[in-house]
Structures are given as C-alpha cells and as structure tokens.
Amino acid sequence: MKLKTLLMGAAAATALSPAMALAEAHEGERGRDGQLNIIYWQAPSTLNPFLSGGTKEVESASLVIEPLVRFDENGEMVPWLAESIPTVENGGVSEDLTTITWTLKEGVMWSDGTPLTAEDAVFTWEYCTHPEGGCAQASYFDGVSSVEAMDDRTIKVTFNAPKPFPYTAFVGSESPIIQKAQFADCLGARAPECTDANFGPIGTGPYKVAEFRPNDVITFEANEMFREEGKPAFATVTFKGGGDATAAMRAVCETGEFDYAWNLQIDPTVRADMIESGGMCTEVVAFGTSVERLHLNQTNPSADLGEARSTVEAGPHPFLTDPIVGQAMSMAIDRQLLVDIGYGSGGTVTCNVLPAPPAYASTANDDCKVQDIEGAKALLDENGIVDSDGDGIREYEGTPLKVLYQTSTNAVRQDTQALIKQWWTELGIEAELRNIDASVFFGGDPSSPDTFQKFYADIEMYTNNFAGVDPEAYMANWRCDEIPGPGTQWQGSNIQRFCMEEYDALVDQMAQTAGLEARAEIAKQMNDMIMQSYSIIPLIHRGGVSAHANSLGGVRMNDWDSEIWNAKDWYRTGE
C-alpha cells in the first residue's frame, strides 16, 4: 500500500478553512489585542514536556516550543516548522520506508534571535533518547536509529527497520524541538537540574516566557521573532493554574476574568446552567482518544519496601496481577451512571484504552458496558477469593483485598471514586480514597511521592490520550522498558508497570506493518491484551470540554493535539 494512503489527507491541509479565513480577516499588527487570560485548573510544574507526561505541561509549553507537524481538529497533519509533509510520492520518504527527510521552513528563528537549524532536531533526539534522561516522550523515537543534519534546514531520520508510519519523531505537541544551545548541558541525569531551561525554554512559537511560577502562573509575551506577520494578536498572556474546574468555568462564563477555561470536568447540569445564566461564554467539545481509566499497580507499593516500592524490584502486587480480581472490579462498575452524573454530552462508555479512530476500536471487551455485581461476586467465589473470617473483606491467598485508590482533586473524580468504592464494597473489596492536588499529581518532580508516575498506591485514576490518528507510539507506551523507576527519574509511560514479552513483540510488529487493516488488527490485539490483563480498567471515552469568552475568536477545539494548538490565530472579536 502506498504510504500516502495511511492517513486521510496527510499531505493535504493547504487550503484555508472557514475558521482560518475568518482569522485572516482580523489580521493586523502583532500584539494589537492586548491581554489574553487562560485558566487551567491544573497548574503546570514545568515547561519542558519531555520531563512530564502531564497534559498541562504539554499544552502550556505548546505556546512556546513547536514540532515539525501538528494535527488539526480533524486529526489531519498540518506542516508547522516543516515546509511540507514528506511522502514516498514526493521523495521525502524512501521507497524502502527506512528514512524520512524533513525540510525546515526558511527563516524560522528562535525567540532569542538565532536561527532554528537541523542540529536542534538532532540534539532533541539525543536529549530524549539519552539512557539516563528518563524522557517522558521517548516512545515517539521508537525505532529511530539516527537523526542527521544534512544541511541547516534538512533533517534525515533513519529507522532501524521499515517504518510504514514514519510520522512520530518531532510530530505533535508531545514531540517538539528544543534549542540545542539552551539545553546542551542538560543531557541525561542532569535534565531535571536545568531549572532555568525547563522553566523558560527558548522557542519558535508565538509566545515567549516572561515569568514562570511553578504550580501557579505563567506570563507570556508575544514572540517578536515569530515567523507569521501580525501574529499573535495578543501582546501578553496570563496562564493561570490551580483551583478547580467549576471556579475556572465561572471565571470565564460568569465573571469574565478569563478568556479560556480548559478541561471543564464538571457536573453537566451545572455546566449548562452556568453557560445559560452568564451568557458570556461558548462551550466547545471535541472527541479524540481521551479515556478516563483506572490503572492497577502491577508492582508492590507497600511503604515497607522503602525506595523499592512500586518498582519492578519490589516484585508483583499481592493480588492485582491476577486478572480475575481486576475483572471482578471492572464488572462491578456502572459506567453509564458515571457518564450521566459526571460527563453528560462530554462522555460515552468505553471498554477500551484505544477507543478511536473507529478502525482501531476493538469490540472484544464490550461486556464491560453492563454492570454485573452478582456475576463479579460469583467469579471471585469460583476462584476461591472469599471472605474467610467474616469481616466483609475477601482475601487473596491470605491477603485482604484492601486498596488505596488515588486520583487528582476534582469534584467529578471524587464523585466517581465514591461510587466505585461503594460498588467494590458490595464485592467485599475495601477501598481507601485519596485525592491529590492536580498540579502535584500530574507534575514531574522526581522527588515528590505524590506524582502519578511514582504511583505509591494500588489503583489510580486519570485520563490520557495521544496526538494524531495513528496509535503506534501510544501503544508503545506499555513496553516493558517504559516502566518508570528511579533510574529514569521516575519518567516513563507504562504507569501501571504492565510487562509482557508478547506485547513488546506486537509493538515491534506494528512498527513494520504497512496496510491500514493490518495495523488496525495489531492495535486491537495490543488493546485487548492490556484490557484482558486488567492492568487498566477503562471507564469513559471523554470528549474535551472547554469554554471561551464570546469575545475570543479563532478557537478551533482539538483533541488530537494540544487543545490550544492554534493560539497563534486567536484574536479579540470586540463583542
């Protein structure tokens, strides 16, 4: 199959959409619209997305540092720092699918006035693949054997085997290019120590960092070196973090203090009332691949193990590595009720960690859509997991089924926790609930005991997704070598510590498979392998729900890339 058929419209995206045409109609002098106020109720802890898998870090950084290509609101690739999308047909991808060659746009400058060159891309690859670096986005470079600067504007990426889908390295908001000059002394274990660079990266994007206060607020200024004339429209941006989703929405829709509020994980009735009563905002929703899920720790998180807790060295979890336990816990959950209470139009029930695009969505796990507490009890009974001492809690080989269940602080998530705790109690499983401030939970601080990467609990809940429409890099997140630990500064995408040689083999197989149908089948196999291990229990296919002031124009809600991917095109309408 020809490479260009792997993505619908991959190399297109050259015509102006109506939204882009409208934005052009409002063009003028850079900074003409004054101040833009954005509120993310989860505050960023760094502006280096390579040191955190958190959405808040990736998206705030996307205002500053950029990839070669982004995905638009339809999941189609759009050249960003690259001049065009390489394909076999235009000669940018080799016939044997082992290389892809990118050409940088001419004249792109870093905000410090120095030119972006291919050497910056080479360095970024070296930075993220350093064995001691613990890069949170390392899977984007899977299969890359070298990155070369052929000249100042030409980047050649070589793969160690044919790569039917070569659009991973430097593609999407999670794989941007960082400046070699700024990060040169930050390789490997030194990466977290480079505070100035991590808090104030020099970028090619529409904005530059003026001040960064971790877990609080970021002030951005328009980048005078930005390559597009008259953009951005706003001279300054205040990016406020912290608080909660309800307060964030109120700040846009009722008080008008802010222009954009992200991730409005709020009771849908409250959300609708706030929009109607205030009359100041517009809700925007986009469905991509976001899944609210439970991660079941496959390692032992006992504090008695000291620094070894929740690592491979700690050994397996006393009972969560048995799929029977996870299956029963999953069967007890009424997912539709969780949607109705917490998400409304912003969610649907899912039984997969890979819910979209449709071609990749498995139907093998659909039994989870119907709650079956009695069936879950019978399953545990049949496997000898019973309450032997009459205290209401079942035991697994002598160990009581007691779990610490943690997530970030958010009203919807705490409601979800309470309901799930109740259902598990009916099974004979005791759950202690814990919630952690989102700025800490999703932060990348390797010294904090409360990050989702450290996973000092039995079960944790959050949402994750991937950029673009091809899941190769995303499914590679669960390779054995992606498990976080002290040796990687606690970075790594395999949060639940799942490890199967057969799974790793499928990751390698997908990387070498061309046809869409064949790739979809492999992706489904990988999804099903994780689902049937019950190391992840999916709950809800979440749409991204945000709100913006009626006076803010140019917003194109996107769940395939950074939500604020086109902030360079935002402007004040004058309403």
Describe this structure in words.
- The protein is α+β, with helices and mostly antiparallel strands and 575 residues long.
- The protein has a domain at 290-469 and 536-542: Roll (Dipeptide-binding Protein, domain 3).
- Helices cover 24% and strands 20% of the residues.
- It has helices spanning 18-25, 55-61, 118-129, 180-183, 195-199, 245-253, 268-278, 323-331, 335-342, 373-382, 411-427, 438-441, 472-475, 501-511, 516-533, and strands spanning 35-40, 69-71, 77-79, 99-103, 144-151, 154-159, 207-213, 217-222, 236-241, 260-261, 281-296, 347-349, 395-396, 399-400, 402-408, 430-436, 459-464, 536-549, 552-553, 571-572.
- Strands 1, 7, 8, 9, 10, 11, 12, 15, 16, 17 and 18 form an eleven-stranded mixed beta sheet that branches.
- Helix 6 (245-253) runs parallel beside helix 7 (268-278) and helix 8 runs antiparallel to helix 10 (373-382).
- The longest helix is centred in the C-terminal third of the chain and has 18 residues, at 516-533.
- The termini are far apart.
pLDDT below 50 for ≥5 consecutive residues: which ranges?
1-23
> Based on DSSP secondary structure assignment, what is the total number of beta strands?
20
CATH topology of the domain at 290-469 and 536-542: Dipeptide-binding Protein, domain 3
Strand content: 15-25%
Level-1 CATH class name of the domain at 290-469 and 536-542: Alpha Beta
- Assigned CATH architecture of the domain at 290-469 and 536-542: Roll
Structural class: alpha+beta
**Global morphology:** globular
Q: How is the main sheet built?
A: 11 strands, mixed
Radius of gyration: 23 Å
**Count the helices. How many?**
15
Q: What do the pLDDT scores average to? A: 92
